[in-house]
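Appendix B, record 7
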Amino acid sequence: MNTKSKSALVILGTLIIGIVIGVLGSSLLRESRERRFDEMRRQRLFHRVMEDIIQPTDEQREGIHEVLEKRFGQIAEIRDQHQDEMFAIYDSLQQDLAAVLTDEQRANLRKELARGHRKVVKVRLERLTHELGLNEEQKERIMEIIRAAEEDLIERRRHRGEPPTDRRQIFRKRLKQMEEEIEAVLTPEQREEYRELRRYRRVPFGGPPPEPPFKQRMDER
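Structure tokens (predicted):
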């Protein structure tokens, strides 16, 4: 290879590296902006939902805002990787709020949080019913599986003797068991679509997940 050819290859290689760096840099910058925007959206929603539930007085508002601000930052920091610690912070959040709430507000907070969780489970189950074509027997069995997993995890939270790493592993293992039990209720076709649905719901930077490819096929049935 002569000197001219070598120079051309060096220039071409430099150009390709520059393009790759530019693309990666742009992608990372965009993802960083998306993460910040998503955190802001989550924080606004968190504050709005909690205030709607609590209905604070003007005298309580500042103290409650400080509690929510403090605990939201901790929740956001460990949300995705440290579920067990997240549960502990939610417990601390309710304890901190209890110091500034009336008895009636505390009772209403507990009731609304429990009702909100049940509503989320119901909405997700209805979504699965629509997207997978579940029958009533499958719906009832899946609800039983979800409730059993929740009871196990709630009971696990009461036993804080294990190291955090062990608790996280137990948590993940129980969720995996729940997913396997749900899959056992499904037909082979539903099972394939359920796995595809789970993959498409795991978006890394928030925002609405893309429609899974099988959704269009099901709509055409």
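Remarks on this record: The longest helix spans residues 3-54. The CA atoms of residues 26 and 199 lie 25 Å apart.
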